[in-house]
From TrEMBL:
Cofactor: Mg(2+)
Domain Alpha-D-phosphohexomutase alpha/beta/alpha per the UniProt entry, residue ranges: 7-133, 157-256, 264-370
Gene Ontology molecular function: any one: intramolecular phosphotransferase activity
Pfam families cross-referenced by the UniProt entry: PGM_PMM_I (PF02878), PGM_PMM_II (PF02879), PGM_PMM_III (PF02880), PGM_PMM_IV (PF00408)
Family to which the UniProt record says this protein belongs: Belongs to the phosphohexose mutase family.
Protein's recorded name: Phosphomannomutase/phosphoglucomutase
Keywords: Isomerase, Magnesium, Metal-binding, Phosphoprotein
Protein source organism: Streptomyces lunaelactis
CDD domains for the chain: PMM_PGM
Amino acid sequence: MTADLSQIVKAYDVRGVVPDQWDEALAELFGAAFVQVTAAEAIVVGHDMRPSSPGLSGAFARGAAARGADVTLIGLCSTDQLYFASGKFDLPGAMFTASHNPAQYNGIKMCRAGAAPVGQDTGLADIRALVESWSGQGAPEPAAERGTVTERDTLTDYAAHLLSLVDLSAMRPLKVVVDAGNGMGGHTVPTVFTSLPVTLVPMYFELDGTFPNHEANPLDPANIVDLQARVRSEGADLGIAFDGDADRCFVVDERGEGVSPSAITALVAARELAKHPGGTVIHNLITSWSVPEVVRENGGTPARTRVGHSFIKQEMARTGAIFGGEHSAHYYFRDFWNADTGMLAALHVLAALGGQDGTLSELVAQYDRYAGSGEINSTVEHQAGRTAAVREAFEPREGVTIDELDGLTVTAADWWFNLRPSNTEPLLRLNVEARDEATMAKIRDEVLTLVRATA
């Protein structure tokens, strides 16, 4: 029976419930298809701490080897550690993770050599077609010469590479609370931080894909409550939270207050522009106005793009950008093969804070200039109709500009908002920013009233 992969092959990755939606038999076919589509002679494969990850990644490796590719298994790793291996060895790679999804989920993030993304338009649709075909007709004949499967540890090399990209020599001692959320940060942080003048206070470093303490998604305020309390009780200089596969990081200041990812984007952009004067910095359209302002103030060129890592990475490659940031706390670096790495962003924050005497809240104040709503989701059956109603309400107003690069963006002199549909759920996502809190709240409430109208 031909497998229906429509529910698990997403825009950028494979993700679904194990074993209900996919299993090791399908993982083996994905491995074979990945090798065929990429024409790879060798690949690298890693996995997170989920109970199903070792079995699924092993099956993927068998399928790849059967098609003649040599497979290097790097075992437990963060997603950015897999990107490191793909870039360092110049090999296509596959990472088994479902990031912050619940324990019963798993997935595959795939990339070409040099950590170049594999999405629907860059190979994922072809991989899906092959797997569907083979699931109904039987797997292809093995290659004449089967590939080898070997193991290699890359954690020490990964840490050394990241530390080589940030000057931490002038850093004063800091007390840092890190919440790994029982995810892969518990694997990477001890090795990366070992040589730093840091008193590390670890939280939930035990690798546990059932996430017994909280969901490993630091963008949800409920999931950083423990970190905020611990930063305050420890009198720490800052807190850092990683998501399940540790490719995103979220920062908490010395007061236990969350630092906007837009402020982190601006801070890191200023530091990267000091290393690469005149460079281009990519930001998605829901980052703060402060990001392009800081980029210009530091002699760089800001470039605006749609939300989503494939768009960021494409623009990074096309423009030769030195850095890219998203409000979802993904941070991309040219020095890291245009891939995203929360750990490198965290090291920049440590270097910036440790290189001066002030607090983190004082440091980031210069980058956090406006009042933002954060992302607000509304369950909406008719997304296009509600979006049209919002456009009709705002378009006639004087001084308003509208663009549809990604959803609907409405901009005025003192505020802007973006309203865009989810690709996978019946949701509309709203982000609002204004020069003051009262204006932001007024625009936010007006748009939400239109979005959530029942008529």
